[in-house]
Amino acid sequence: KAGVTQTPRYLIKTRGQQVTLSCSPISGHRSVSWYQQTPGQGLQFLFEYFSETQRNKGNFPGRFSGRQFSNSRSEMNVSTLELGDSALYLCASSLDTWAGTDTQYFGPGTRLTVL
Amino acid sequence: GQNIDQPTEMTATEGAIVQINCTYQTSGFNGLFWYQQHAGEAPTFLSYNVLDGLEEKGRFSSFLSRSKGYSYLLLKELQMKDSASYLCAVKPTGGFKTIFGAGTRLFVKA
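ok -> structure tokens follow
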């Protein structure tokens, strides 16, 4: 079974631009979570989607948004990029994060650099 | 609120045993996870605890004490390839997210 895929793997943008990142979960997984990882802050939860609905959102400004499609693929968008948005963005899929035994499987991430 | 504490860095010798501790404060959770993350790579699942006690999986074991808000990951017969970050994470009840600690960077030296 193919793992979680994320595109693009690397991205360089300038301040003020916007970016869209894509995540394809493992086949059959309906829950997709997004995380931002930086050296100083570790993994920070952005949001989680299940069946096209956002069920939870982390403490990030409204510039960060996402959506999920009917095939469970998900995208996240960051508008008006700031230097501090430079990070590794990880997507993780699972059958359903409501279940206590549910394990998340991570994609390779998208490395975003904002200049 | 939820808070997870882990040591920032640890160093151990090849062939030895190392214990990575994790303490957490949360009103309730469904499970505690350990992930391994090599530099430049995505986290990969190592273990899961929901009940108190020790879960053993080959060279890796994880322990949980819910009453003490404490867990540890035990790595035996350390190998150089075990040099990585180890992330402790909890899944609070009533939510749809997993909270990760900042991770412990383990350096295995010859």
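Chain B has a mean pLDDT of 91.
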